[in-house]
Write a structure and sequence with these properties.
Blueprint (H helix, E strand, L loop, with lengths): L1 E2 L36 E3 L4 E8 L1 E7 L6 E6 L2 E7 L4 E2 L5 E2 L2 E6 L5 E10 L3 E9 L9 E7 L4 E3 L9 E4 L3 E8 L3 E6 L3 E7 L1
């Protein structure tokens, strides 16, 4: 399995942009041509995952008659299972295989581990989009402080999802050391931190 947040190629998360120079309103696109040059073809049984913040996610893929089923889990719970070999039929009954998207919605704000697997055939994945769909920050909790490497902080109220953490100075942390109720720091020296979540 490829973990996209560990320095491997970020083909499905580096969205970039493609600007239509002939338009007064440039369009933003994930890819350059039909179905894109930045798609990731997952072989049957192959998986990728990314740790990403948000409340909602959209998975973009290409329908193709030779592909299988896309299975997506979020934080270990299956949230999406969709066949990627379905065609669109035109009024004159022509079969077209197009870009498609499916959403995973209404998660608590914070970090989520999105895991995508190709089952019963390959999957042509175009991207994973992250959204913050909160109307306001009324329920947001922020914790700021100063810590040293090796220090563990306990959150007095557990977050609904793993929170987003910003660090400064020589302070660092591993995503595997971040939980809804605690965080253990690593790094080379003391520094500041900010923990944000719901």
């Amino acid at each position: 399995m490829q973990k996209l947040w560990r320095g491997e190629p970020l083909h499905i998360i580096v969205m970039g942009s493609s600007i239509d120079r002939g338009s007064a309103n440039p369009r933003m696109a994930l890819y350059d041509g039909p179905y894109g040059t930045r798609q990731r073809v997952l072989k049957p049984g192959e998986s990728i995952e990314i740790d990403i913040p948000g409340t909602d996610f959209s998975l973009a893929y290409v329908d193709d008659p030779k592909t299988g089923t896309l299975i997506a889990t979020v934080d270990g719970e299956e949230r999406l299972r969709v066949s990627t070999n379905q065609s669109f039929k035109t009024a004159d009954n022509q079969e077209l295989f197009l870009e498609n998207r499916r959403g995973i919605r209404n998660l608590p704000y914070g970090m989520h581990l999105v895991h995508v697997t190709a089952d019963q055939g390959a999957v042509r994945l175009l991207g994973i989009y992250s959204y913050d769909n909160r109307a306001n920050r009324k329920h947001e909790n922020v914790l700021r402080g100063y810590a040293v490497p090796g220090e563990q902080i306990q959150f007095s109220a557990e977050f609904h999802a793993r929170p987003i953490v910003l660090v400064s100075g020589g302070l660092k942390f591993r995503s595997t050391d971040l939980y809804r109720d605690r965080l253990t720091f690593t790094g080379t020296s003391a520094g500041g931190f900010e923990v944000v979540g719901q």
